[in-house]
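Thread: quick sanity check before group meeting

JM: Hey all, I'm pulling together slides for Thursday and realized we never actually wrote out the predicted structure for the chain we discussed last week. Dropping the sequence here so it's in one place. If anyone has concerns about the input, flag it before I start.
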Amino acid sequence: MFIAIAAAAFCTTFAGGLLALRVAQRLQWILGFSAGAVIAVAFFDLLPEALELAQKAHRPVTVLAWTVIGFIVYLCFDRIAFAGAHARRDIMRDSPANGAVPRRGTWFAGSLSLHSLLDGVGIGLAFQASPAVGVIVAVAVLTHDFADGLNTMNVVLRNGGNARVALRWLLVDAVAPGIGIGSTLFFSVDDGVLGMILALFAGFFLYIGASDLLPESHRNHPTLLTTIMTVLGSGVLYLAIALARG
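JM (edit): ok, ran it. Output follows.
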């Protein structure tokens, strides 16, 4: 199962990156769907599972506090690690890359790859909670991995890197989730701690969906279709979670 998910993550990430070379400006609806899916996983799967696992050791307010901590931690990481790259990305929309500042693209691509590694760890820990939770989190991560591949390719190319460099970073980003999943085979945590970790990842997912994917999907294209795809993403994941939980 883990090998299949790692292979799917690799293929999804790589597909997103390759597609970015051609039709990145037409993918707002995919990003909108991903935003809805990721947010739905946080609310309908990760948080309920976290509350259930941690109920014997922690009060619900403590579990929710860890969700807020996860949101804030990811926010701070985004602001510190990505600030320069975001600023440069906005400039590059109006001025073509000239190869002068490839380090910014490298830093941002490396940060995205680290994020993909943590995604894999999240999948592995979710499977420790239950197979159903693991599959649902894996599906959510896969929808996000497509956007990760897209963003990795774009940020390198828009910050002075060439296609060869961008493809190398895309390969790193595509392999990272599998490494993260594999790492969880060598450690396990008890239910109380696992519940808090899932709550932390719920905060991560909420930030990724609400502060990254959703705004990006509406950037320069605030269309009705994009909004519909976001709602559809939430609805599809809700149905999938409901069916998985029986």
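AS: nice. The chain has eight helices and no strands. The CA atoms of residues 5 and 138 lie 7 Å apart.
JM: adding both to the slides.
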